[in-house]
């Protein structure tokens, strides 16, 4: 890395990681997102790494394509917590979600779960997983 290169801004890194998180949740490739925006997948990679900053209008387009509000990309952003205690709890819980959705099983589970249209079936599935987790804790 060249000496005169600046390190990416933590907010740009965070926004990029949230773009990647949402894109992978939807099972969308970098190529497909780039195509929808009229840019290359390499540009998407740079956004996701935080190497390149995402402009406001481009972020608006991305939020529309990925079907989330623009605020989604700033949730749990560094330095945004008002209360330090709550902030740490929030950060660790959101990291847990990111880690889960970055895993193969987490992605498969999420993709299958969002295809379930019936809210009662979803609820029963959540209850089943909670019961299994409680059982595992007892072992």
From TrEMBL:
GO terms for molecular function: DNA binding. Residues 19-73 form the HTH cro/C1-type domain. It comes from the Bacteria. CDD domains: HTH_XRE. It holds the Pfam family HTH_3. This is Transcriptional regulator with XRE-family HTH domain. The lineage of its organism: Bacteria, Pseudomonadati, Pseudomonadota, Alphaproteobacteria, Hyphomicrobiales.
């Amino acid at each position: 890395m060249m000496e005169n290169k600046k390190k990416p801004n933590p907010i740009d890194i965070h926004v990029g990681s949230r773009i990647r998180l949402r894109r992978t949740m939807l099972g969308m490739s970098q190529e497909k997102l780039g195509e929808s925006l009229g840019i290359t997948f390499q540009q998407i990679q740079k956004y996701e790494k935080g190497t390149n900053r995402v402009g406001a209008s481009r972020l608006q387009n991305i939020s529309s394509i990925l079907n989330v509000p623009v605020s989604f990309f700033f949730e749990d952003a560094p330095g945004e917590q008002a209360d330090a205690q709550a902030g740490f709890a929030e950060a660790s819980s959101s990291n847990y979600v990111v880690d889960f959705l970055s895993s193969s099983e987490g992605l498969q589970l999420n993709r299958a779960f969002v295809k379930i249209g019936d809210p009662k079936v979803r609820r029963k599935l959540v209850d089943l997983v909670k019961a299994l987790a409680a059982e595992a804790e007892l072992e």
